[in-house]
UniProtKB/TrEMBL annotation:
Domain EAL: from-to ranges: 24-278
Organism: Sphaerotilus montanus
Signal peptide bounds: none
Full-protein interval shown: 558 to 840 of 840
Organism domain of life: Bacteria
Official protein name in the record: Two-component system CheB/CheR fusion protein
Length: 283
């Protein structure tokens, strides 16, 4: 059986390989082909000041334009990519695309809009990451802190090495650092004190029923107070209703993103949205 073979033996057909890992293998090879064929796209979701609704940044989210299957969402391929080197390939592709887009918007007279890229665990601890960030900033003339990286709590915990040292090195490469999906991991709160990060993003599971569930309201309020106590900015993700926006604003949350304002969009659509949105005044 397969167990008698050496650990490094890799056979395509293995009766012990379950359906899920077979599907993952097929997906990863299709994705490898798709990445090489230029089928990835970066979509952009605005981040807004919760009080004034002014545009203050964007999050870049990967999409895969499959020739037969159409648009494929990251939930369908990022988990498989995370199990291989492909997560680094995808992350590097996104960083190139986003750095170029930030520079293009600036060249169009739209200013330096900060844009965040999500980072997989293997990429976070990849030694090529800080030099790549420096190269991209030099190549596109990006000032410090217009590129932002979003890293989940679990990525920080899984990373080999000292997360604080890795974050410090990234920060010295001139990027802003955000902890994504904050509150969903199993980390202790005291670790935050030692981590050089700039932003906490409240996971959308806490925002979801904030109008109905007092426990979620209290968790969101606690995260906001914690962030501010540590001198960090706080962003709420998944803001879908005006009630949610109002509650988060009342709790002192700085920024928000969500379907209430806009869905993730291709760059061209983002540009149109941006013109229409303007900087609305408070009524
Ligand atoms: P995330 O980084 O937490 O991104 C936020 C997700 O919430 C996005 O889903 C976004 O479309 C969705 N979202 C935003 N506002 C709302 C809302 O109001 N309601 C609801 N229901 N959803 C909202 P998306 O684009 O499908 O991405 C899912 C996850 O996939 C991301 O979660 C991130 O973990 C991962 N991901 C996306 N792009 C990349 C990438 O380029 N690299 C890596 N490593 N991961 C990525
Ligand atoms: Mg994110
Ligand atoms: Mg998130
Ligand atoms: Mg999330």
């Amino acid at each position: 059986g397969a167990k008698d073979d050496g650990r490094n033996t890799w056979r395509f057909y293995d009766p012990q390989m379950n359906q899920a890992s077979l599907e993952r293998l097929i997906l990863v090879s299709a994705l490898r082909r798709g990445v090489a064929a230029g089928e990835l796209r970066a979509w952009y979701q605005p981040k807004l000041d919760l009080q004034t609704r002014a545009l203050i940044g964007a999050e870049a989210l990967v999409r895969w334009k499959h020739p037969d299957q159409g648009w494929i969402q990251p939930v369908r391929f990022i988990p498989a990519a995370e199990q291989s080197d492909l997560i680094v390939v995808i992350g590097e592709w996104m960083l190139h695309a986003v750095a170029a887009q930030i520079a293009r918007w600036h060249a169009q007279g739209l200013g330096w809009l900060p844009v965040a890229v999500n980072l997989g665990a293997r990429h976070f601890s990849h030694p090529g990451l800080p030099p790549l960030l420096r190269r991209l900033r030099a190549e596109h003339g990006l000032p410090p802190n217009v590129l932002e990286l979003e890293i989940t709590e679990s990525t920080l915990m899984e990373a080999g090495g000292e997360p604080g040292a890795l974050l410090g090195e990234l920060r010295r490469a001139g990027v802003t650092l955000a902890i994504d999906d904050f509150g969903t991991g199993y980390s202790s709160l005291s670790y935050l004190r030692h981590l050089p990060v700039d932003v906490l993003k409240i996971d959308r599971s806490f925002v979801n029923s904030i109008e109905r569930d007092g426990r979620d309201l209290s968790i969101a309020g606690t995260i906001i107070a914690l962030a501010h106590g540590l001198g960090l900015k706080v962003v709420a993700e998944g803001v879908e209703t005006e009630d949610q926006r109002g509650l988060l604003e009342a709790l002192g949350c700085d920024q928000g993103q969500g379907f209430l304002f806009a869905r993730p969009m291709p760059a061209a659509e983002f540009e149109v949205w941006r013109q229409v949105w303007g900087v609305p005044l408070l009524t």
